[in-house]
Design goal:
Number of strands: 14
Radius of gyration: 20 Å
Number of domains: 2
CATH topology of the largest domain: Aspartate Aminotransferase, domain 2
CATH architecture of the largest domain: 3-Layer(aba) Sandwich
Shape: globular
Structural class: alpha/beta
CATH superfamily of the largest domain: Type I PLP-dependent aspartate aminotransferase-like (Major domain)
Bound molecules: pyridoxal-5'-phosphate
Amino acid sequence: MPLFNVYPLYDVTPVKAKGVYVYDENQTEYLDLYGGHAVISIGHGHPKYVEAITNQVAELGFYSNAIQNPLQVKLADKLEALSGCKNYELFLCNSGAEANENALKLASFKTGKSRIVAFKNGFHGRTSAAVAATDNKNIIAPINAQQKVTTLDLNDIENVKTELEKGDVCAVILEFIQGVGGLDQANSDFFEQVDLLCKENNTLLIADEVQSGYGRSGKFFAFQHYNVTPDIISIAKGMGNGFPIGGILIHPNIEAKFGMLGTTFGGNHLACAAGLSVLNVIEEQGLMDNVKEMSSYFIKIAKTIPKIKNIKGKGLMLGLEFDFEVGDLRKQLIYDYQIFTGGAMNKNLLRILPPLTVKKDHIDQFFEALVDILDKK
Ligand SMILES: Cc1ncc(COP(=O)(O)O)c(C=O)c1O
């Protein structure tokens, strides 16, 4: 049976990975500055992670959400401690889209309203309401398009005010650093005003931290760079270091009711073991400090390269903007220099999303390759 052909693939076949490197079937080593799309947080094949998953699957890999699962409680407690998000409650699911889907549904349940305000170049996943709130017509099918979504410009606070005052908006969903769109960030005044307007208009603020969360921005959550209190925070990518797990942190002003949300696989024992070991490693290895240090190091070098026109993002969620499309540059980096990087909807932007364990010599290796390619251009 052929695979449904929806992914344009690079001709590389990784079979093994360790730390910041992946290896193909010929043992060729690739430097992973893409992190499997911002997923690899604590590094490939971290021994503590491997041990946690191995032990858990041997004990109990899965049982449904009909029984007590103390691992979910442990994960929630650890997440509260590391994120500093006190008093929020945790609902676990399996992916970023599912996290946002549940967040939007909860906002609609809570407010009794159904319109969503989202932003240009935002990306929130490929399911029903999440994809409708995503600014990409090519991935919104007619069945999704029936959702009521108003897409506004970042930083346009007047339009946010006008829309929320109409009284039918259940949620404002936003990325504090846009990922897929190309690392744009609104200014802090805008974020803080949006937060206030939501509170004044019985609209929930959903922080989509699927990509920017788990330390990637230099703080546990990207919204923590601002003075805002989201009602719901959605998480996924870095949470399981590759094990599929997602979730939402829910403010105590939203009351749970039996049956309101649910999932078969979400929060299973194996996923929780993976998620817990990720948080333990982030803490034990001081990875958030490493993010800050490596980010400054990366930006310092990037600033010395005149062909880089703009440096975007925060922490290890970074973008280098050029005055040309980077498709060929990415191919050269992979095939000639064995370095994975990311692209974005902004075709001139090279995205850098390494494991949070990346070190200076990896960054040096990247810039040597980049300068070599740019010099030959
Ligand atoms: C900000 C953001 N939200 C949601 C998603 C969707 O996550 P998933 O692909 O796990 O459904 C993504 C994926 O790239 C994302 O970057």
